[in-house]
Amino acid sequence: MITSEVRLKIKKRDITMSVDGLTDLEVGHIGDQVEKKLDEIEKKTGQPDTSKLAIMAALEFAIELHNFKQRYANNKEADTRKIDEMTAALEGALDKKLF
């Protein structure tokens, strides 16, 4: 995987970090999402402390990631069951005599 160093500005702070496997454009978009999330939480809570806002944003993103993982696991399970059902139906159809 390619690692590149990117520079972002979030909440008037310059941030430089190493990122694997993403383009500068993708990292910039993610940075915009982080800034938007911080602004939303600040507006909602009135919390001026950026370190607390960062922790709250991290928790919201972590919850969102957890929910995506849960949905993925549930969908994968349902897909596997459906594939097993279809395989059994196809095998049953193949076992029948055509004439």
Question: What does this molecule look like?
Answer:
The chain is α+β, with helices and mostly antiparallel strands and 99 residues long. The chain has helices spanning 24-45, 50-95, and strands spanning 3-10, 13-20. Helix 1 (24-45) packs across helix 2. It has one domain (3-95). It is 69% helix and 16% strand. Strands 1-2 form a two-stranded antiparallel ribbon.
Structure summarized in a few sentences:
The chain has helices at 24-45, 50-95; strands spanning 3-10, 13-20. It has 99 residues and is α+β, with helices and mostly antiparallel strands.
List descriptors:
elongated, two-stranded antiparallel sheet, 99 residues, alpha+beta
Count of helical stretches? 2
Measured as a percent range, the helix fraction is 55-70%
Category by helix and strand content: alpha+beta
Main β sheet profile: 2 strands, antiparallel
Strand content: 15-25%
Low-pLDDT segments: none
General shape: elongated
What is the count of distinct domains? 1
Look at the structure and give the mean pLDDT.
90
The spatial strand order of the largest sheet comes to: 1-2
Element pattern in H and E: EEHH
- Strand count: 2
The N- to C-terminal Cα distance equals 56 Å
